[in-house]
Amino acid sequence: MTQPALGGDPFNALGDPNRRAIISLLHDGEKSVQELADALPISRPAVSRHLRLLREAGLVADRADGNRTICRLDEAGLNEILDYLGEMWGAATARFRLAVENIEEAP
Known about the structure:
By secondary structure, the chain is of the alpha+beta class. It has a single domain, classed as Arc Repressor Mutant, subunit A (Orthogonal Bundle). It contains five helices and three strands; from the N terminus they run H-H-E-H-H-E-E-H. A three-stranded antiparallel sheet has the order 1-3-2. Helix 3 crosses helix 4 (44-56). The longest helix is centred in the C-terminal third of the chain and has 31 residues, at 75-105. The model is unreliable at 1-6 (pLDDT under 50).
């Protein structure tokens, strides 16, 4: 899996429950930083710090809308994670299948 341009690690970014909550909230669509802060038990500055880490990891993008910052999921970054997990899951499934076949063939 290639690192996003800014060098953040998406798996480290997802290691924090508040960042996972932000990802879940953005799954429903774009939200302002204030809307995210209102939905979470942390301060607005803390939400902004979490968003910065998610942006650096390639998982969230934002845009200015007047004096508000509107955030959304970055599908390219999320797709990289899905591709990586798909590769790992495929390899694990193949090893499991091989183990089961060897057990079934044993006398």
